[in-house]
Amino acid sequence: MTAPTTTSQNIAEDTLRSALSSSKRPQRPNALSASLTFGWRAMLKIKHVPEQLFDVTVFPIMFTLMFTYLFGGAIAGSTGEYLQFLLPGILVQTVVFITIYTGFTLNGDITKGVFDRFRSLPVWRPAVLVGALLGDAARYTMASTMVLVLGLLLGFRPEGGISGVVLAVALVLVFSFSLSWIWTALGLVLRTPNSVMGVSMMILFPLTFASNIFVDPATMPGWLETAISFNPITHLVTATRGLMSGTVTTGQMGAVFAACAILIAVFAPVTMYLYRNKK
Amino acid sequence: MERDKVVSIERGSSGSELAVHAEGLVRNFGDNAAVDGVDLKVAPGEIYGFLGPNGAGKTTTIRMLATLLPPSSGSAGIFGHDIVREADEVRSRVSLTGQFASVDEDLTGGENLVLIARLLGHSRRESKARAAELLEAFELSEAASRQVKKYSGGMRRRLDIAASIVVTPDLLFLDEPTTGLDPRSRNQVWDIIRTLASEGTTVLLTTQYLDEADRLADRIAVIDHGKVIAEGTPGELKASVGAGALHVRLADPESRPEANRILSHSLGASMHLESDPAALSARVSDPEKVAHALAELSRSGIAITDFALGQPSLDEVFLALTGRPAEDEEADEKEEEVA
After folding, report:
1. Phi then psi dihedrals of residue A182, to 5 deg
2. What residues have CB less than 8 Å from B97, skipping those under 6 apart?
3. Which of A79, A268, B40, B284 could serve as B22's disulfide partner, Cβ 3.0–4.6 Å?
4. Interchain CB distance below 8 Å, A122 and B188
5. Closest Cβ–Cβ partner in A15, A28, A277 for B136
């Protein structure tokens, strides 16, 4: 071991000492500020890893084009007619599918060491999760914008006007935030990001396809129609269509908010329990 | 093998609160007790080394003390605050630098420090200033706007420690701070740890290297199978094990029996005949005797090609303390990795 004689080889001790002594403990941040800081982290990650935006840009375009032109003629007689029906549903499907990245990302954080550091900080504990979900809301907004712009270009004309469309997107965001708590719980339970992805897909495929996104459930066998009426996605799509076409009812909105409340009431506590007792 | 070989000294608890006071700490993973009744007393301001092989329970113990993992039984206080009931108070006194870099690899070094500073409650401006100050102190200014995934192991470790002292903690946990580092980076980390301690931060570090514990720690606990099997200052510990190992290599393998007789006699220890027919070794407790033994050898006309007197290795400490060599406990380790 060579004696540390050259100071350039070593950490400047004086700078370190002064950095240590100039440290002071500020007041603890409140829950909102801590959550926003974690949201900022999510934004930074988008900045540094822009590839992850692939799913909020390319997928929405692909879905919208594919389903409109594949099924439009067969289901509604013309692609133009079908687009009026399909677009709100495609918006829901696109955003709901992106929510699974929440669990995927969270699981990645845990696998690496950074999660331990966050948990050892004296901050409001759910902040790391809430912040991640806030960051995701930005991604959902981006995806929604892609779908809407493309839809308008293809000839989608929402009767509900701008306010209807904005409210519809807001409703989809609220629902996605609520749904994400399922994925955070999964992200904490499963061992690898890929298994989180797999299980999430397994849940989401039946949930989105066995709904009223693509076709009117009235055309389906009775048992399936009944099953679909219990699917929260169905209610979300109905309310989104209603908002965009200006025909929404309080009952339709109420059903969505009830679904959101149930999702949060069940899965947020489960997530927090798992988070607190994470090995 | 519990406490009989322990070189323990009751410290005069001079009224002041212990930095760490753990009693009968246990953590089970399924049927397996990763930590099996650990007692620890760490005085404020000291560097405390936690020495043991992979999977001995070091990381699990640290995770419990840092409030990341609730103990299955037993209790521990950090500066008098219970790790379970007063976890929040504990978190505001400690910092943790985990075994695997606990920084965000996608972010830059500067962003990582700003993030932690913001989470601790600094304003945006203060956070930036604090980050710049720490980057400077840890010689990372040039790499400030580079993503951490592009950092070398040593830079990453330094950033990791910097993130732990954004607000200088009263107690810093360092889990294997130098594992995998090159010698120069290791020296830097050692310097940082010494400086931190001299400024009043209590440091609890885990290590697999006796050498590291010896150079840094004021006191060392040796942990094996989730139990503390010895505790004391490095000097006490080494005295209990022997000063180290003497390795001698003879010019002529034929003379080994004679050399064995002379060395055993003057060292007062039994020699180990190595697989190399010209080599033999022994554990020695007193380096003074080595000079004498080597002189005896040369007086008898036995030529040696080289000799070395090494510090006892962790293996030797283990051999002496447990009667068996240290071995990685694979199963436990996996459990900890998953955890």
Report:
1. -65, -45
2. B160, B161, B163, B164, B172, B173, B174, B175, B177
3. B40
4. no
5. A15
* Burial class for A10, CB neighbours closer than 10 Å (0-12, 13-18, 19+): middle
Instruction: Name the domain count of chain B.
Output: 2
The alpha carbon dihedral of B130, B131, B132, B133 has a sign of positive
Would you give per-residue pLDDT tens digits along chain A (279 residues)?
A: 444 444 444 566 788 888 877 777 888 889 999 999 999 999 998 889 888 788 778 888 888 888 888 888 888 788 888 888 899 999 999 899 888 888 888 888 887 778 888 888 888 888 988 898 888 888 899 889 999 999 999 989 999 899 999 999 999 999 999 999 999 899 888 888 888 889 998 999 899 888 998 888 888 888 988 888 899 999 999 999 999 999 989 999 999 999 999 999 999 999 988 887 776
Residue B325 lies inside a defined structural domain of this protein: no
| Same structural domain, B109 and B204 | yes
Residue B184 domain-assigned? yes
Q: Answer yes or no: do B165 and B261 share one domain.
A: no
Q: A274: nearest CA in chain B?
A: B69
pTM of the entire predicted model: 0.78
Q: Which of B188, B222, B239 is the last residue of a domain?
A: B239
A24 touches chain B (CB under 8 A): yes
Residue B92 to residue A28, Cβ atoms within 8 A: yes
- Do residue A23 and residue B165 have CB atoms under 8 angstroms apart? yes
> Are B130 and B203 contained in the same domain?
yes
Distance from CA of A214 to the nearest CA of B (A): 38
